Automatic annotation (TrEMBL):
Protein name: Intraflagellar transport protein 20
Residue ranges of coiled coil: 108-142
Xref: InterPro entries: FT20
Compartments where found: Cell projection, Cilium
Length: 157
């Protein structure tokens, strides 16, 4: 029993030393009675009940803020997902526009090629027409000569 009493005295002395050191470190800014108090349940508290209530209120507000931040993070994640989808869609449209632009740019080249091809065909047909005209004149001359020959031979008989 004497040992328990001695331990109790030792603990009490340590607590008193702690409060004395606490009082010295806090100087005159905060009295020890404001730091340690007894609540309604008879428990020793490091802070006043009003301050403890404020801390509990702050804890609740922090939990609410954390919840709001989580909702915000989910909204941001959703927004980022939508933006990624739109970015992919824009890239597809951009590629399609480039393909159409390239096709459109190649149209004048194709038109020039078609014009050159048609001009070549016109030249060939013109040359062929000129050859047929010469052949036609030649045949007309032969026909005329033959008609003259037939007429001469018919009149001689």
């Amino acid at each position: 029993m004497f040992g328990i009493y001695f331990v109790h005295l030792k603990v009490r002395a340590e607590i008193l030393d702690y409060y004395k050191n606490l009082k010295e470190t806090m100087a005159d800014s905060v009295p020890v009675s404001d730091v340690v108090c007894v609540d309604d349940m008879g428990k020793a508290r490091v802070m006043e009940p009003v301050l403890a209530d404020k801390v509990a209120g702050l804890r609740d507000k922090c939990a609410e803020f954390t919840s709001d931040i989580e909702v915000y993070r989910e909204s941001v994640d959703t927004f980022i997902g939508v933006m990624d989808h739109l970015a992919k869609q824009v890239e597809r449209e951009k590629r399609d526009a480039i393909v159409v632009s390239n096709k459109l740019a190649s149209l004048p080249n194709k038109a020039e090629e078609e014009i050159a091809k048609l001009k070549s065909q016109i030249e060939q047909k013109t040359t062929e027409l000129e050859r047929y005209r010469i052949e036609h004149r030649s045949l007309q001359k032969i026909e005329s000569d033959q008609t003259d020959l037939i007429n001469r031979l018919s009149f001689q008989n």
